[in-house]
């Protein structure tokens, strides 16, 4: 075998090894993206702006008396969900925990629209009888909710303190951090640091 033939074979071996390394790195990057979700809630520019007073809507409650949004001198966390949304269902234990830990100053309200029978089944299956559960398409339209799960934190004065698309407990808790710090979202904080 000539020196040129040996060099060609050696180059092909190097190329095949490089392809294997690139494939392994691409797989690791994919795994990393699955494990690391965005830190904060993805804020939406639709609906009432931060600091804006929420409309005083009287809403039907599947678990009790009608409730009025933004009234009563207590903060409210309105969590928009769907009976067919697996991420919404995965966040229900976090909402139960938040309700238990922050119940002195915060009301956690579940909100959706659609057929009442499906929501009654969800309430029973997930043990949500203690939560106010609003079934109102008007509420979703007022906040211009386009994707789920979505949450809005309303302060004790009835104004929007923070809001956004929430896919994890960390993103849900970031709404409280945004309200406390006055920085509307993690994305806004990063943008502020880079400018």
Q: Any overview of this molecule?
A:
It is elongated, with a radius of gyration of 24 Å. The protein has helices spanning 3-35, 86-90, 92-102, 116-126, 137-142, 169-181, 186-194, and strands spanning 58-59, 67-68, 75-80, 106-112, 133-135, 150-154, 160-165. It contains seven helices and seven strands. A hairpin with a 7-residue loop joins strand 1 and strand 2 (67-68). The strands form two sheets. The chain has a five-stranded mixed beta sheet with strand order 5-4-3-6-7. The protein has a two-stranded antiparallel ribbon with strand order 1-2. The termini are far apart. The chain folds into two domains: 1-36; 58-194, Glutaredoxin (3-Layer(aba) Sandwich), CATH 3.40.30. The chain is 45% helix and 16% strand. The model has no long low-confidence stretch (mean pLDDT 87). By secondary structure, the chain is an alpha/beta fold. InterPro entries: Thioredoxin-like_sf (IPR036249), Thioredoxin_domain (IPR013766).
